[in-house]
Amino acid sequence: MPLVFTPTYSATKAFVHSYTLSLRKQLERTNVKVLELAPPYVQIELMGSQQAADPRAMPLNDFVNEVMSILANPPTNGEIIVENCKPIRFAEKNGNFDQLFDLFSSMDEG
């Protein structure tokens, strides 16, 4: 989901997704597995101390535990997506991308 107040960060995440898809395809006949981890909004200080305390963000320990659980048996498509992230990641497929984009665009940085 692109964020209006961090367009470069959002574009970089889109690039990484595209890049991992290409690498995964290029390497599919080798022993190399390309996994992509798509984190949700997590309680860390990436965008300041307010993010680490934001109740809308996923607690870091919960995120790490869920990722480690998924890594025990990675999905065949190579995408590591925690449950908290799925509504945003699949918004276009689910038909509510515009609604969520508008919602996220109306939020300020804090």
Describe the 3D structure.
The protein is mainly alpha-helical. It is 49% helix and 4% strand. It has a two-stranded parallel sheet. The longest helix has 20 residues, at 7-26. It is globular and about 45 Å long.
Throw out a few tags for this protein.
110 residues, two-stranded parallel ribbon
Helices, strands, pairings?
Layout: H1 7-26, E1 36-37, H2 49-52, H3 60-71, E2 79-80, H4 86-89, H5 91-94, H6 97-106
Parallel strand pairs: 1-2
Proportion of residues in extended strands: under 5%
Computed over alpha carbons, the radius of gyration is 15 Å
Compute the number of helices.
Answer: 6
Mind describing the biggest β-sheet?
2 strands, parallel
Structural class: mainly alpha
How far apart are the first and last residues' alpha carbons, in Å? 17 Å
> What is the general shape?
globular
Helix content: 40-55%
Whole-number mean pLDDT? 92
Based on DSSP secondary structure assignment, what is the total number of beta strands?
Answer: 2
Strand numbers in spatial order across the main sheet: 1-2
Low-confidence stretches: none
Order of helices and strands: HEHHEHHH
Short description:
Helices cover 49% and strands 4% of the residues. The chain is mainly α and 110 residues long. It has a two-stranded parallel sheet with strand order 1-2.
